[in-house]
Design brief:
There is one protein chain. With about 525 residues, the chain is of the alpha+beta class. It is about 50% helix and about 15% strand. β11 and β12 form a beta hairpin. It starts with 7 loop residues before the first helix and ends in a 27-residue tail after the last helix. The relative contact order is 0.09. The N terminus and C terminus are likely disordered.
């Protein structure tokens, strides 16, 4: 969009703009050309009355930046003066409202952000020329007031980690709970489609969540992120000290990450109430930067998720009862465990708990249909979900777990009879270059897309099992049984095409990004 000048016509436009924006949730006049627009509501510095202005903005991930250009007028705009008098305000982006605190940028930080603003909309270069020698156009960071909600009681030195994810996401919830329990300060950024692409380009894998460290490097894949923090010794140690217990914790984390993925997505997208609720939420968050009406975005999400997570992931009339049975059987097994102790392996959480938390928090606990089943059949599991979510370092009791409990047989049976045989079938399919994998589990036949990522999951388990000493390996074998041990002792499998460049999806297949 070309640079504008303030005149009677533009003044009229700026007056009606907020009304149209609000009535349509930003679907109309939500952009000036290619530049996105937000509504900023400030408190008048003289009258204390609310004042709303439409402003072009720059999305910087953890916050938004605006420039008080006033189309190159010689004076600072009224909204800027109000904001400096009362820094706490509210913005609206699309149909989403966010309370913010304003922070004027100075020096090198201002110069950097100004360059980004001009790169996004060259009109601001002309506004700068109009004000040259008269005033420097102020640049303001609009930082969400709740951005520190994720900060914990033992923050890292310097800036916090940036956690990019979705508030309804399986793995985002897992990682949030882990960071909070470890006392690692983070700032949560609800991803847009553009940020989803940005994180994919930075990590090579289009998936969420992703972490940007204070030094600017990127971390992805929750299992690898947990491994990073445990290895680096950040925060209290959560991995068991006992080698056999540590292996079991990682084995169960992998089981919960991958084997419960399908039940979690099944309950979200196969039931009408859940699907309507969650498709709307994703349309309002991840796709909030898509300039289409909300109902169109919601319809796209609903069709896409049902195709990918139901039709293409082996959900049929024959397999659906097995999926539901797995969830109900798991609830019963967990309810008995949590009647005896607060966490899966003992008095403090381990990686196994966070793996379980992925499907059980944002999906089974929060979504209507599985949430009702949990409350009815396994109230202690619901209690465990809230317990883990609120756990902070000061609440951790006892030493790291030093043994494997005797009552995890249900999950060891799933490992030996279902999960590891599936991983072996998937390994063979990927090695042969086949697009799908066929296997039998839970008494039914399945056919789903082959997953190179899960070959690496299998390889990692094999490496960890091979590293155990004889005593620890024997104690693991006593728990999981000879069939599982035979599979864990198999040779690692190279992943065809792993060295090729290009974006990959979560399962390491070629990435498909919204839009």
């Amino acid at each position: 969009m070309g640079a504008v000048r303030r005149n009677a016509i533009s003044q009229l436009f700026f007056r009606i703009h907020p009304w149209i924006y609000r009535k349509t949730g930003g679907r109309l006049l939500g952009r000036f050309g290619n530049t996105p627009v937000l509504m900023l509501t400030t408190r008048g510095r003289k009258t204390s009355r609310p004042r709303t202005s439409g402003l072009a903005y720059l999305d910087r991930g953890s916050h938004w930046a605006v420039a008080a250009s006033w189309a190159g007028e010689p004076k600072d705009p009224v909204w800027y003066l109000n904001l400096m008098a009362h820094p706490e305000a509210t913005i609206q982006i699309g149909d989403r409202r966010v309370p913010i605190r304003a922070r004027p940028l100075q020096g090198d930080e201002r110069a950097l952000v100004w360059k980004e603003i001009v790169a996004q909309d060259p009109s601001f270069a002309e506004y700068e020329e109009r004000t040259r020698g008269v005033r420097e156009i102020p640049v303001v960071a609009l930082e969400p007031l709740n951005a520190s909600d994720g900060a914990t009681e033992a923050p890292t030195d310097g800036a916090p980690y940036l956690l990019y994810g979705l508030s309804c996401s399986y793995f985002t919830g897992k990682l949030q709970a882990y960071l909070q329990t470890k006392g690692i300060a983070y700032r949560f950024v609800e991803m847009t489609r553009a940020q989803f692409r940005q994180c994919g380009k930075a990590t090579g894998v289009v998936q969420l969540p992703c972490i940007q460290t204070p030094e600017g490097s990127w971390l992805t894949d929750t299992t690898a992120i947990l491994e990073h923090f445990e290895t680096e010794g950040v925060g209290p140690r959560l991995r068991p000290d006992d080698p056999a217990a540590a292996f079991v914790s990682l084995l169960l984390e992998d089981l919960f990450d991958e084997w419960y993925w399908r039940p979690a997505l099944y309950y979200r997208w196969a039931f009408a109430e859940d699907a309507r609720l969650m498709s709307r939420q994703i349309a309002r968050t991840l796709l909030r930067d898509v300039p289409l009406p909300l109902f169109v975005r919601q319809g796209f999400i609903l069709r896409r998720q049902r195709r990918v997570y139901l039709d293409q992931d082996g959900v049929t009339k024959q397999t659906a009862p097995a999926i539901e049975a797995l969830y109900l059987d798991t609830l019963r097994a967990l309810d008995a465990i949590f009647a005896r102790r607060p966490f899966l392996l003992g008095e403090r959480p381990t990686e196994a708990d966070f793996g379980l938390f992925g499907p059980f928090f944002r999906h089974f606990f929060c979504d209507p249909t599985p949430g009702a089943l949990m409350c009815e059949h396994a109230p202690r599991v619901a209690n465990w979900v809230t317990r883990l979510w609120k756990t902070r370092p000061s609440e951790l009791t006892g030493d790291p777990i030093a043994s494997v409990p005797d009552d995890l047989g249900f999950f060891f049976e799933r490992v030996a009879n279902d999960y590891l045989p599936y991983l072996e079938a998937n390994r063979r399919s990927v090695a042969a270059g086949e697009a799908t994998v066929r296997y039998r589990a839970q008494g039914v036949d399945w056919e789903i897309p082959a997953a190179p990522y899960r070959v690496e999951c299998f390889n990692a388990l094999k490496r960890r099992f091979a590293a155990l000493d004889a005593d620890a390996a024997a104690r693991v074998a006593d728990r999981v049984g000879p069939q599982a041990v035979e599979l864990l002792r198999g040779a690692e499998t190279p992943i065809p095409g792993a060295e090729q460049q290009g974006l990959r999806g979560r399962l390491w297949r070629p990435a498909a990004v919204f839009g």
